[in-house]
Write a structure and sequence with these properties.
The chain is of the alpha+beta class. The strands form six sheets. Strands 6, 7, 8, 9, 11, 12, 14, 15, 19 and 20 form a ten-stranded antiparallel sheet that branches. Strands 21-22-23-26-27-28-29-30 form an eight-stranded parallel beta barrel. Strands 5, 10, 13, 16, 17 and 18 form a six-stranded antiparallel sheet that branches. The structure holds alpha-D-galactopyranose.
Length: about 750
């Protein structure tokens, strides 16, 4: 709900309110953001932590406002040159090099639904969404800033974006244009960011903020695994389950930047948007530029609730198309089973074993096209290699469909290998600077998607492939980052628009392809999780989370990912032991217990497994299908543990909660470890708790199988009141009583784990 009262604008959602105040000078200042308040509340003016503090010899706005220090004023969209020396939301050049702006309030509009200036953007919903447009104008020049705020009532999410309009006779150059700026009154916050690299994506970094600017960004041409555009501000005492948390993310797949500044006067300014690094955009008279959208949420009860706000927002307003609300199929991917070394016969034997075990989708990964027998050739030639697949994609598709399996296919459309027909025909389509030797990544180069003819070629090549094979699923990969920034596209001549134009070309291709193939389930991938962002999720409902499927690393990778993105978007596979990335050995059951928290599948050679492992997998798939809706769409929560050796996760849908208990190392004779508390359950109900039955190989326990096998593999169950589960917590592992008989369940080994099913009873 959005309302105006005097000089104040109130943007409210179910439990939050964001307040903006127009000052008597016309400046648009930020007033507050937090739990919901009533616009008619008495004494509202006193909650603002005043800007009119004397800051000695600081610059004040003008002689009529001697207490108005722009450097200490909470603003909605900071500009340069009137005394505010913090990081600006907008930087421009005009009139032969001037850059000072002084924008003030001009008009406003409150309306149902939302604007759709930049594509991709969040979906609208007239029932649930209301928007505010504030128009600001520079005091002297015809430069207009439109600030958009859309309140998603049910999800407690506020969407922000900006549009800059040049109505001057001269050109205006944008050098930095943020999607959102948020000025907070105190600096007593810590920052959570989601950082890493290939195979260790989105590990959570928690740091205290100190005076100066902290920058989280990507300059790689993609949103990147180095720093995700998701960030949180949390109080020192905030945990998953309590304390204040403000979370932000951007609906964009290119270079992004999140700047967090602690000002000399202990205020915090947060900016998020397209990275100003090597960015410039010229607006001729009448021209305008719209930023990508940013999302914002607030929770007074820990970061689980902020993450849950984002999860429901993403599922409802970012994911679209046929697969939006559908359960995702269990897949087998041949990559780690065969790498490039496959024949059709091998693929079909893998597919038939997969089908026998209950798998629903077969994904043919890299190596099926052109000269692609290794990663040194073939990218760009999207034509089937018939020496591998004698009946073509259409033949393989037919055979898989006749086995009642869906057919999935890997492509990496944005790339070209030097050893390819495409490169021989169009060497200038590759991104490189004439006269310089271009840098390489995985022996490949990037195609210039800022050029329409390149996008058109890819569109028709992919249409042909997807129709021929009657493909049901596509894994869209992107395995290197940008270098040698240059384009022959005349529109990018100054190169300052290069990164952004590339992303616009990619979005154009994706929107045409996804419109043409509305039934295909798309999964975006980028050498694992180099492009896990809301821009890609607008086109593709799933993302491959990381090439690293190591059980222990996945705990951190998935925990970080789930702070911004729902389980249904998170590709997670069981792969071989020892793992190909970590060389760690781990049990097949524990690998499943960790991988089943997303869009799930297998990526190993099923034809080489022993009978016990195959039985375990059959059993896992049965379990996953039974609880798939809870695991893909339930409310995910991290449950804090006092014991650093234990990890607890839960997912709740309707009356069912699934819990993961994971131990890092096995410890001898520890006595009781931490208890499991589920404070979100209903205190007035009773719950039946059981553990998932696991199939344990005799060789994993050796001679002690007969003594301990039962306690590791058997299923037990017990009934516990909601009040005890909420307020006291129960001991799991070492003392889990069942049906009157006192039994002990054990977790097997280092990195061992167990799943529990908790059903509310009538
Ligand atoms: C990337 C992906 C992998 C696989 C390979 C194929 O690394 O992340 O899953 O598809 O490419 O080359």
């Amino acid at each position: 709900m959005i309302s105006k009262r005097g000089d104040y604008f109130f943007i409210s959602t179910k439990s939050t309110t964001y307040v903006i105040k127009i000052l008597d000078t016309g400046h648009v200042s930020h007033f507050s953001y937090g739990v919901r308040i009533d616009p008619s509340e008495k004494g509202l003016e006193f909650i603002h932590e005043g800007f009119d503090v004397n800051i000695g010899c600081g610059t004040y706005y003008d002689e009529s406002h001697p207490m108005m220090f722009m450097d200490n004023l909470a603003m909605e969209y900071g500009t340069v040159g009137k005394g505010d020396a913090r990081e600006p939301a907008l930087e421009v050049r005009y009139g032969g090099g001037l850059f000072v702006l002084d924008p003030v309030f001009c008009s406003y509009r409150i309306f149902k639904g939302k604007n759709e200036d930049f594509l991709p953007c969040a979906l609208s919903d007239e029932e649930n969404v209301e928007s505010l447009e504030l128009v600001l104008k520079d005091k002297l020049l015809d430069i207009f800033i439109h600030l958009f705020y859309s309140a998603y009532e049910e999800e407690d999410v506020i969407l922000r974006s900006a549009r800059i309009e040049n109505m001057m006779d001269d050109a205006l150059v944008l050098e930095n244009v943020s999607s959102m700026m948020l000025d907070l009154p105190d600096s007593d916050w810590e920052l959570l960011s989601f950082d890493g690299a290939w195979a260790r994506e989105r590990y959570i970094t928690r740091r205290a903020l100190s005076p100066g600017v902290t920058v989280i960004d990507s300059k790689l041409g993609c949103s990147s695994s180095e720093h995700n555009s998701l960030i949180y501000l949390v109080r020192k005492e905030t945990s998953a389950e309590s304390g204040e948390a403000i979370a932000m993310n951007l609906i964009y797949s290119g270079n992004h930047s999140e700047r967090i500044e602690v000002s000399p006067f202990s205020k915090i300014r947060v900016l998020t948007g397209i990275n100003p690094f090597n960015f410039s955009w010229t607006l001729e008279k009448g021209g305008s530029f719209s930023t990508p959208e940013a999302i914002l949420t607030y929770s007074a009860s820990g970061w689980n609730d902020a993450a849950l706000n984002f999860h429901s927002f993403i599922k409802k307003y970012i994911i679209r198309g046929k697969w939006k609300d559908r359960l995702r199929p269990v897949l087998i991917n041949n990559w780690e089973a065969t790498y490039f070394n496959f024949t059709e016969k091998k693929l079909l034997s893998l597919a038939s074993k997969a089908k026998e075990l209950g798998i629903e989708l077969f994904v043919l990964d890299d190596g099926w096209f052109g000269r692609r027998t290794s990663d040194r050739a073939g990218l760009g030639d999207w034509v089937c290699n018939r020496s591998r697949l004698p009946d073509g994609l259409e033949g393989l598709g037919r055979k898989l469909h006749s086995m009642d399996l869906l057919f999935g296919l890997w492509v990496e459309p944005e790339m070209v290998s030097e050893n390819s027909e495409l490169f021989e025909k169009h060497p200038d389509w590759r991104i490189s600077i004439p006269g310089r030797t271009p840098s390489v990544g995985r022996h490949q180069y990037i195609l210039d998607l800022s050029r329409k003819e390149v996008v058109d070629y890819l569109y028709s090549a992919l249409c042909e492939v997807f129709s021929l094979g009657e493909v049901d699923y596509v894994k869209w990969d992107m395995n290197r980052t940008m270098s040698d920034y240059f384009s022959l596209n005349k529109d990018v001549s100054a190169m300052g628009g290069f990164f952004h134009k590339y992303i616009l070309g990619l979005y154009d291709l994706l929107s045409r392809i996804t419109k043409r193939f509305p039934d295909i389930l798309f999964e975006s991938c980028s050498a694992g999780g180099n492009r896990y962002d809301l821009g890609m999720l607008c086109f593709m409902p799933q993302t491959w989370t990381s090439d690293n499927t190591d059980i222990h690393h996945r705990i951190s990778i998935q925990e970080g990912t789930l702070m911004g993105y729902p389980q249904s978007t998170m590709g997670a596979h069981v792969s071989a032991s020892p793992g190909h990335q970590s060389l760690r050995k781990s049990g097949i059951e524990s690998r499943f217990n960790v991988a089943c928290w997303g869009a799930f599948g297998y990526e190993l050679d099923l034809t080489k497994l022993c009978d016990e492992d195959l039985e375990a997998i059959r059993n896992q798939i049965g379990f996953y299908k039974k609880y798939r809706n809870v695991l893909q769409n339930g409310k995910f929560r991290k449950i804090s543990s006092r014991d650093d050796n234990l990890v607890f996760w839960s997912s709740t849908l309707n009356k069912t909660t699934i819990v993961l208990e994971y131990q890092i190392l096995n410890r001898p004779n520890t006595g009781f470890q931490d208890k499991l508390r589920l404070p979100f359950l209903d205190r007035s109900k009773c719950y039946r708790i059981s553990n998932r039955r696991q199939i344990i190989r005799k060789e994993d326990l050796g001679d002690i199988f007969s003594s301990y096998g039962k306690s590791v593999s058997e299923e037990y169950s017990a009934v516990v009141s909601g009040r005890l589960l909420c307020d006291y917590g129960i001991f799991l592992g070492p003392q889990f009583a069942g049906n009157g008989v006192f039994e002990t369940t054990r977790i097997l080994g280092d990195f061992g784990s167990r799943l529990y099913i908790i059903e509310e009873m009538d």
